[in-house]
């Protein structure tokens, strides 16, 4: 494929999706990420797109929201790994809320195997994934159907969440930065996500590395409200994603990184525990008492510690003393 053809295809993908990672662009145009990066620089010089954190976005700073058909084909391996790991933070008999999105849809497919759950959602896709789970109760919000992401939005959805209290909220979005937290491109979706957050004792954000450092119009979850981020391992060359992860950890967000393939760390883990690498947890936020999120992190670390050699047990013991 000639450079002009590659660049035209890259431009069409960015226009269709709003934001595309270099990894995905390289896969579609069937070339290396080095070549794609050079093409993206050339297109940026012409003002046709902007480079952003290991990918390309529409020019103008804020990415627009793409529809479900486009999102469902982006970063599929990463979303699967994130969903596998996120399911480990859900226990039998819990009541949780799950927001709309392709990553949360993947999570819902795994929740179907956990008995005694009550799942509150505004997503038709999440509800569909759990429709035949005999031991999971699904509670849907009211609201108006937003066809682009199959979610219920509006005042009906928000009012149905008033007075609700659950243990955790699992949310996705269009972008995540340490400065603004989770954001999305649609005002109605943002408003419902904020209502979901208000109902939960903990907030868990599911975001693959392509969303790290991406900022969109409407803030949904400020950084200081996010309990945990579950993401995938950024590519080695994506320094800015790594910097963003560290900035989030510095602000008190617990980071769990899922491997998109295999079990690279080689640790022995129980059947329902997937390999994960936790960024070293920061000190508790000033004036904050240890909450259920910290307990969950210690429980997960303890499981890994029971399976690992003495060095891992020492790390777990040190976490308990903090």
From TrEMBL:
Where in the sequence does UniProt note compositional bias of the Basic and acidic residues kind? 312-322
A GO MF term:
DNA binding
Region Disordered: start and end of each range? 259-322
Q: Which UniProt keywords apply?
A: DNA-binding, Transcription, Transcription regulation
- List the InterPro entries: Carb_Metab_HTH_regulators, DeoR-like_C, DeoR_HTH, NagB/RpiA_transferase-like, Tscrpt_reg_HTH_DeoR_CS, WH-like_DNA-bd_sf, WH_DNA-bd_sf
**Where is the HTH deoR-type domain positioned along the sequence?**
3-58
Q: What is this protein called?
A: DeoR family transcriptional regulator
Which residues lie in Low complexity bias regions? Answer: 284-305
Can the keyword DNA-binding be found in this entry's annotation?
A: yes
Entries under SUPFAM superfamilies matching the protein? NagB/RpiA/CoA transferase-like, Winged helix' DNA-binding domain
């Amino acid at each position: 494929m000639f450079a002009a053809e590659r660049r035209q295809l890259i431009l069409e993908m960015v226009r269709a999706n709003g934001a595309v990672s270099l990894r995905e662009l390289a896969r579609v145009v069937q070339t290396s990420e080095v070549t794609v990066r050079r093409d993206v620089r050339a297109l940026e010089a012409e003002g046709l797109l902007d480079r952003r954190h290991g990918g390309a976005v529409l020019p103008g700073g804020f990415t627009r929201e793409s529809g479900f058909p486009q999102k469902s084909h982006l970063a599929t391996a990463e979303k699967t790994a994130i969903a596998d790991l996120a399911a480990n933070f859900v226990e039998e008999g819990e009541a949780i809320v799950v927001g709309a999105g392709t990553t949360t849809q993947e999570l819902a497919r795994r929740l179907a195997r956990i008995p005694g759950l009550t799942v509150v959602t505004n997503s038709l896709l999440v509800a569909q994934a759990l429709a035949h789970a005999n031991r999971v109760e699904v509670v849907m919000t009211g609201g108006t159907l937003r066809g682009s992401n199959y979610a219920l939005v509006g005042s009906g959805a928000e009012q149905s969440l008033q007075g609700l209290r659950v243990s955790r909220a699992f949310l996705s979005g269009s972008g995540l930065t340490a400065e603004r937290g989770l954001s999305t491109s649609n005002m109605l979706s943002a408003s419902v996500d904020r209502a979901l957050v208000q109902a939960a004792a903990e907030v868990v954000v599911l975001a693959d590395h392509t969303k790290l450092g991406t900022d969109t119009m409407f803030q949904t979850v400020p950084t200081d409200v996010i309990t945990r981020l579950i993401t995938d391992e950024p590519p080695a060359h994506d320094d800015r994603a790594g910097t963003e992860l560290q900035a989030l950890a510095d602000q008190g967000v617990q980071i769990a990184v899922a491997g998109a393939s295999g079990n690279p760390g080689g640790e022995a883990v129980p059947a329902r525990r997937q390999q994960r690498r936790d960024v070293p947890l920061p000190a508790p936020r000033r004036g904050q008492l240890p909450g259920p999120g910290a307990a969950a992190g210690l429980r997960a670390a303890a499981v890994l510690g029971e399976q690992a050699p003495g060095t891992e047990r020492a790390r777990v013991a040190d976490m308990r003393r903090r």
